[in-house]
Amino acid sequence: MIAFRQLELQRGGVPLIESADFMLSMGHHAGIVGANGTGKSSLFQLILGQLTPERGEIALNGGVRIAHMSQEIVTLSRSLTDFVLDGDHALRETQAALEAAREAGEHHREAELHGAIESLDGYTAKARAEQLLVGLGFAQRDLERPLSDFSGGWRMRANLAQTLFKPSDLMLLDEPTNHLDLDALLWLEQWLVRYPGTLLLISHDRDFLDAVCDHIVHFDQRHVQLYRGNFTTFERTRAERLAQREAEREKQQARRAEIEDFVRRFRAKATKAKQAQSRLKMLERMEDIAPLRAESPFRFRLPCSDKVSHPLLSIDHAAIGYGEAPIVENVRLSLAPGSRIGLLGPNGAGKSTLIKALTGELALLKGERTEGEHLAVGYFAQHQLDALDLNASAFTHVQRLSPQASEQVIRDFLGGFGFRGDDAFEVITRFSGGEKARLALALIAWQKPNLLLLDEPTNHLDLDMRDALTEALAAFDGAVLIVSHDRHLLRASVDEFWCVADGRVAAFDGTLDDYRLWLKNRLTDAARASTDEVEEGAAPKEDRRATRRAAAELREQLKPLKKQRDAAEKSMEKAQKALEAVEAKLSDPVIYEADQKARLTELLREQGEWKTQLESDEQAWMEAEEALEEMQAQLTAS
């Protein structure tokens, strides 16, 4: 159990948390959500004892082992596997003691320590560490390389692997998906679902929160509220509470007006003076119900260039890669106005490399890249955040693009991205990753592209900004190609998927759920092939075309059931609308007059028929959905 009792916290004299009072039982998986800067990460520092609250306390069961993902790595000379193993301090200490006993010839002590290592599951530790690293996207050949060989994003993956490996009863994860691609995110999601301890997870990925969490801790305007259920349940429950609060506020405002009117009319009358004073005191005691805060601080559009070309951009018979080694070959693709494409593929298959080739940043090894006459590319990638001028403000960045633009136009534009008032003129040296990402997106929008190439645009963005970006992309008139691990963004923003795998780029005929299945089968087949090679020596590698064919067959098996479910859902909607229309007519008192008897009988007959139809459709939908879930479970387990 972890309890937060009347917790209050300030940072730099600014209140962050006021009177937080809630409790989580051991084994609960709680997602922590709220706008950036509301105190989510500070809560972790309080739990770890790195901050002291102004008031209240955090109570933990005695002996609770805490795993927390560090943001820094100091032992860069350690190999990946050794670094992950270092997360189990008790195991490492026991291994060191065993080595010392061996050197001293203390055989009895050595036997005791072998038993201790067995009890710590130490003899499977290396295999477990390697499994974590491979699941998070590292190649088998990388596992003995030193951490210094890897970039910052990959080092953060290693930090995450060490945190997962560490024996724990309570795990604290702060944005663990920021440096992951979709494949690694799906793997992590399943790992955390099976985690038996208590989990506190800060994340802005609604699909990830839905899959992993059974409680939501919401930070809003210095208050912390615990909700049961996953993120979707939280959104629905909170919306209901906000609507109820607004209704109460309106009722209170009406009551205030009545009291004020009474006091104004009767304060001077001797016979009513006492009652007027009584009502004044009542007015003073009434606690204000705060008006609802605006849903999101972000409101922006992604304007599209007035001129377009058909196609905007094409690549023909291309080989793409670095040096002389192609990563993808025989690439033939064309991006037309209005195209909306999500790019899928295993880690390292070449998704980001393909986007760089599309922008022209990376020259083709062979083949042709042809730009349309009016092509205007808006390109977002993480390295572009580092290219921002840290000594300039958001306003200056935009002004450099359009020196002729008026100050008010620029300020209004930046306000939609959350840079309001003096924030637009603040030098960005101290900007967070999320603020830099917002500025990079703003600079793209300002230039009115007709082709957006977005490589993980949601990293560091909070939920409000992700939702605003999703809405802006939905309204964008140009072409879009996205690499993202945010499944909500992909579902809402793209119409088709391309898959980069095995050195090829091809259309992927399926949904994100189909891709999860495809990926699982691919990993299973790769593991089986690896085992076969170990057992049989130089056994031939699995035919990749056969693997793709098998995945396509799995999707074909699911298609009829999906069609049945979707057809039943459409019929349900039609029946529901018809039933509502009939019942609206039945609610009219005129229909019950004597001369309307025939019409009433007809409406009652229609009502009965539509109710029967709706029940039938609901039954059909449930049967198709259950059959679909059962088949998906069978395919996943196979």
UniProtKB/TrEMBL annotation:
Tell me the superkingdom of the source.
Bacteria
- The parts of the chain that form a coiled coil are 544-585
Q: Which SUPFAM superfamilies match?
A: P-loop containing nucleoside triphosphate hydrolases
**Record's keyword annotation contains Flavoprotein:** no
**Pfam families, per database record:** ABC_tran, ABC_tran_Xtn
| InterPro entries reported in the protein's UniProt record | AAA+_ATPase, ABC_tran_Xtn, ABC_transporter-like_ATP-bd, ABC_transporter-like_CS, ABCF, P-loop_NTPase
The entry's keywords: ATP-binding, Coiled coil, Nucleotide-binding, Repeat
Q: Name one GO molecular function term.
A: ATP hydrolysis activity
Q: Look up keyword Coiled coil and say if it applies.
A: yes
Which residue ranges does the record assign to the ABC transporter domain?
2-246, 313-527
Question: Hey, which family's this protein in?
Answer: Belongs to the ABC transporter superfamily. ABCF family. YheS subfamily.
PANTHER family named in the record: ATP-BINDING CASSETTE SUB-FAMILY F MEMBER 1 (PTHR19211:SF14), ATP-BINDING TRANSPORT PROTEIN-RELATED (PTHR19211)
Its recorded name reads: Probable ATP-binding protein YheS
